[in-house]
């Protein structure tokens, strides 16, 4: 099954021919700042399975908490967060789940891991049965 997704305005579309290897929430302050939310919901896929089908995303490079680069891709028109390439996760694409089509933003109701739990907002409890990591890596 192919995963597909897009930005809010539809200018950028993408696909992955792989199912997520990992489903994760990230509570790091970088993700909070990038999305304007308390965390990001993510589907991690092999880089070789991922492609941009339409449009040309812009990106912003930010040093993550690890000190390594986080390259955030977004729509140049509407600004939607699309995906990330992390130097810490070579060969992987971290798709922001909110852009996935066909109701897949819920990640099937299964979160495998939560990263940067040390930065989790106080009003949000841990996801039941998800591995809890204070940091990443």
Automatic annotation (TrEMBL):
Pfam families referenced in this protein's UniProt entry, alphabetically: GFA (PF04828)
PROSITE patterns recorded: CENP_V_GFA (PS51891)
Record domain CENP-V/GFA: where: 3-117
Assigned keywords, A-Z: Lyase, Metal-binding, Zinc
UniProt cross-references to InterPro entries, sorted A to Z: CENP-V/GFA, Mss4-like_sf
Signal peptide start and end residues: none
Molecular function in Gene Ontology: carbon-sulfur lyase activity; metal ion binding
SUPFAM superfamilies given in the database record: Mss4-like
Keyword tRNA processing included in the entry's annotation: no
Family recorded in the similarity comment: Belongs to the Gfa family.
Protein name as it appears in the record: CENP-V/GFA domain-containing protein
């Amino acid at each position: 099954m192919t995963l597909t997704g897009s930005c809010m305005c539809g200018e950028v579309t993408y696909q992955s021919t792989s199912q997520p290897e990992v489903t994760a929430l990230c509570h790091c302050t970088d993700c909070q700042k990038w999305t304007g939310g308390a965390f990001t919901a993510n589907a991690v896929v092999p880089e070789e399975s991922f492609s941009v089908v339409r449009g040309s995303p812009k990106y912003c490079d930010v040093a993550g908490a690890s000190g390594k680069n986080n390259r955030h891709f977004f729509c140049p028109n509407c600004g939607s967060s699309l995906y990330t390439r992390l130097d810490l996760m070579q060969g992987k694409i971290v798709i922001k789940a909110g852009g996935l089509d066909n109701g897949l933003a819920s990640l099937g109701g299964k979160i495998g891991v939560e990263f940067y739990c040390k930065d989790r907002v106080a009003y949000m409890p841990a996801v039941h049965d998800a591995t809890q990591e204070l940091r990443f890596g």
